[in-house]
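Quick note —
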Amino acid sequence: MNSPCLRQCLLVLVLLPVLCGPAHGRNASGWQWSLVLKQNKVSDAMQMPTALYIDPEKGQYYVVDSGRNRLLSFDRRGALLHIFNAGKGLQTPFDMVRTGNGGIWVVEKGKNALSYIDLKARSITPATLRYQGALVYPDRLEAADSLLYVLDKARGRIIAYAPEGLVARTVFSCPDCDSGFIDFRIHEQMLWALDRQDRKVCRFRLDGTLEKVLALDGRLNFPVSLAIGPSGSIYILDRHGRDIVVYDRNGRFRYRFLGRGTSRGQLYYPVEIRFDPWGGLCVVDEGNARVEIFRR
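Predicted structure written out below.
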C-alpha cells in the first residue's frame, strides 16, 4: 500500500488547497441557487432586465425589462403575475419603486425623465429633474422616508426629492472621487454609495453628512452595484468578473463567489444586486435575461 503512486496521490491532495488558494464558489460562500425570475415563453422573454424592486408587503418582485419597455411582477415562488407596459407609454425604463399610495415611479432613459404611473387613473406623467438649475440624468432610484433618492448619472451624485413637486432636499456626493457614484442603497437609515473608478464605498447619514469612506482592494474589475447584508457585510457585483465580491463592514475582503456562464446559477452580464426581506440575494443578469435568487 506504500507504493510511489499512492504517495504521489496523497501529496497532490495535501498540496491542492495550497496551490488553488481559498475556496471559490458556492461552498466557500454558503449561497446556493434558489429560484429564477424570467418569462418562460421564449417569444415573450425578457430582453434586457436592468433593475429589481421588491415589495415586502405584497410579497412580490418587480423586474424592469428595459429591452421590451415593460415591468413584470412575480410572486415569492417565482411565478409570473403580470406584465405591464403602461399602454406602450414606457421608453427604455431603467429602474422603479412603488410608493405608499400604490403608484409607481420609473426612471425612463428614453425620455430622460422620472415618471409617475397612476395605476388607478391609468396615466403616466414624466418629469424632467433639475438641481440648482442643472439638468439631472436619472439613473438608479430608491425610496425611503417619503423621499425619492435619484442617482444623477452625469455627475455621479445622489439627490433626494420630495415626490410632491419633485423639490430637491438633500444631495450626496463624494469630494475625493474622480468619477462619482455608480450605485447606492439605503440600509438602516444610512445611505451607502459605490464609486466605481476609485473602488470606494461611502456611507452617509440621510441628512447628507458623509460619515465614512471605505477603500476596497484591487480585486474588483468593473464594480456596478452594491448591497448591504444583514450582518453589515458589503456585497459588490463585478460585471466583468461575472461574480460577487464580499467585504466585511470595515472593507476587508472575505470571499468571492459565482462565475461566468449561461447555466443555472451562473452570470453573464450582471447589472444589479439586492437583498430581499426573505433571506434571498437577488442578481439581475442582463446578459442572461433573468434574475437569479440565492439563499443560504
